[in-house]
Q: What sequence folds into this?
């Protein structure tokens, strides 16, 4: 909690201008919002720890002594959680690698180098973000799964997401803020562009790297449709796909289907939620806003 | 030989045809190849498939795929399931888009002026957005099933049949789910836009005697209009892409196709029933409709800029 004395003058000013009633109303709206957003997550965790599903109101506040990890064992017997996590990790890792290496290169070229086609490339990076996937779904499936034979293959999973365009735009935005003189001077000293990028530019945009890693991570980690289309082999399915298959087909035959589903959901959600909470201050509105609208 | 003549001719041509740092093109080449391979080519290919008799063949097999004009479009648009799915996504957008714009702007405005618990509030608003749909679908199934917590709280007011198995409520429930799930992202966009609204406008509004509600409508709403256009566009495109939620929440678009989305039908027709050409035609129609809706939104919400 922040004390009044540490508020900025502007905050203090708006605080005095606003009547007590308005402040109360605002607090009530915000608190109701937080409750609506957080309760399902609390309920997910509680439900995953209950031996029997208890949908009554009292069931939302169970006795801690009755909680059990049985549901986690149950879901792990049906779908291997570890295999799913490893596959999600490889899928996400591949996309992160592509985005960081090639996204940084493109972002740097767009911000600091003068070359023909720069404007068109930047326009493409913005345009690509609004191309609806439903138009690409059938041709991408035909090309990647059929023609290139990359179904049930990590490459096939990664390819459509390999370089995140939002990340390219965010990198460009950050590199634009670096003074041109910095680079001109180093160029005169004969440094080549890769050295400039690696030694000068990247260390100066470190916060952008974290923002981009966070933003890029949630895409493939949470993606369902594409990996669902191209993986039939359970040993290669990311966790989102194997859990969805469990929900849509096997859940009916389990002893406590909700408990097991929610246990799987916790395992799928936990890495992203933890990562997000730890690095939330890098999830900044202005950066991500500019990544979408340029 | 050609390279030699080119080298001789080069100085006469305008120097540096690729710009001052041709290296920029090299640095961007992987990204450009990616865009070409994953976006541009499939985009063109999608139209080609929609106008030809296309079917899955063994890899490498030479098959004849004749041009069939608008046959695939006729097949698609005379299919009642396809028409129904377009209607469903219409219902979805009518609920989801206005709700998204209003709630995210109100919450962003409130959040923008708050000083205490700011981090906690920010994190709780964004958490549904960063979490996998597949994971939160599990909780919603639990919350909204027949004897679930929502119906327990509602008691006699609970709809019968329950939310996800009712022809009336299945699609609205999905629309509410997606609104809840995505809202954090739009709050983020509005928060960014609010930083760009000049403080002086609020000050002069308040000297003119405008209260909080007045200045919200006369300063905030017009001030974030470009963001509103973006939120309308992104939420419409996201809504048209609906797949995971009807696939999992309502067991594949049930009951009786009441919550089937066009993308779900594309999956069923194209990949399960082996008619990728019809599926591609559905995709083309869907995108044309999205573009029309986006144009209208821009026309009415975008103003002169």
A:
């Amino acid at each position: 909690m922040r004390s009044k004395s540490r508020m900025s003058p502007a905050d203090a000013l708006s605080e005095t201008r606003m009547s007590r009633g308005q402040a109360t109303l605002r607090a009530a709206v915000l608190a109701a919002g937080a409750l609506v957003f957080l309760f399902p997550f609390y309920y997910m965790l509680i439900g995953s720890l209950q031996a029997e599903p208890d949908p009554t109101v009292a069931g939302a506040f169970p006795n801690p002594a009755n909680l059990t990890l049985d549901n986690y064992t149950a879901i792990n017997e049906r779908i291997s959680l570890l295999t799913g996590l490893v596959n999600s990790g490889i899928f996400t890792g591949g996309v992160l690698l592509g985005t960081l290496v090639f996204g940084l290169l493109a972002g740097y070229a767009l911000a600091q180098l003068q070359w023909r086609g720069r404007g068109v490339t930047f326009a493409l990076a913005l345009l690509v973000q609004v191309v609806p996937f439903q138009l690409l779904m059938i041709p991408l499936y035909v090309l990647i799964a059929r023609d290139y034979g990359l179904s049930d293959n990590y490459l096939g999973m990664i390819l459509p997401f390999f370089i995140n365009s939002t990340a390219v735009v965010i990198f460009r935005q950050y590199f634009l803020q670096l003074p041109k003189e910095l680079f001109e001077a180093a160029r005169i000293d004969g440094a080549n562009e890769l050295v400039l990028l690696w030694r000068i530019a990247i260390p100066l945009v470190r916060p952008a790297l974290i923002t981009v890693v966070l933003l890029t991570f949630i895409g493939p980690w949470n993606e369902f449709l594409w990996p669902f289309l191209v993986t039939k082999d359970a040993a290669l399915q990311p966790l989102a796909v194997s859990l969805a298959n469990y929900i849509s087909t096997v859940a009916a035959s389990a002893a406590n289907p909700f408990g097991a589903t929610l246990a799987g959901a916790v395992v799928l959600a936990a890495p992203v939620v933890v990562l997000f909470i730890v690095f939330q201050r890098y999830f900044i509105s202005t950066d991500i806003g500019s990544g979408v609208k340029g | 030989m050609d390279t030699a003549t080119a080298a001789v001719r080069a100085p006469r041509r305008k120097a540096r045809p690729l710009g001052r740092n041709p290296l920029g093109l090299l640095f961007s080449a992987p990204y450009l190849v990616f865009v070409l391979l994953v976006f541009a080519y499939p985009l063109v290919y999608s139209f080609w498939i929609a106008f030809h008799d296309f079917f899955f063949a063994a890899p490498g097999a030479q098959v004849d795929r004749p041009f069939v004009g608008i046959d695939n479009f006729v097949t698609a648009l005379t299919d009642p399931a396809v028409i129904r799915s377009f209607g469903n996504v219409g219902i979805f957008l009518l609920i989801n888009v206005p709700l998204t714009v209003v709630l995210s702007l109100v919450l962003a405005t409130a959040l923008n002026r708050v000083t205490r618990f700011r981090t906690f509030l920010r994190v709780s608003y964004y958490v549904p957005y960063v979490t996998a749909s597949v994971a939160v679908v599990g909780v919603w199934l639990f919350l909204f099933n027949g004897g679930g917590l929502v119906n327990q709280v509602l008691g006699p007011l609970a709809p019968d049949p329950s939310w996800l198995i009712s022809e009336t409520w299945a699609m609205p429930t999905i629309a509410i789910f997606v609104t809840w799930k995505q809202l954090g992202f739009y709050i983020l966009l509005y928060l960014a836009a609010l930083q760009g609204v000049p403080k002086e406008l609020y000050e002069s509004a308040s000297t003119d005697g405008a209260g909080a509600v007045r200045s919200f409508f006369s300063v905030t709403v017009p001030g974030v209009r470009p963001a509103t256009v973006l939120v309308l566009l992104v939420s419409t495109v996201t809504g048209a892409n609906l797949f995971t939620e009807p696939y999992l929440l309502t067991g594949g678009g049930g009951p009786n196709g009441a919550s089937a989305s066009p993308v779900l039908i594309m999956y069923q027709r194209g990949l399960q029933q082996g008619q990728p050409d019809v599926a591609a035609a559905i995709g083309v129609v869907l995108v044309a409709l999205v573009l029309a809706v986006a144009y209208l939104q821009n026309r009415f919400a975008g103003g002169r800029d």
Residues 19-68 of chain A form one domain. Residues 1-13 of chain A have pLDDT under 50 and may be disordered. Chain A touches chain B through 105 residues (CB under 8 Å). Chain A is about 70% helix and 0% strand.
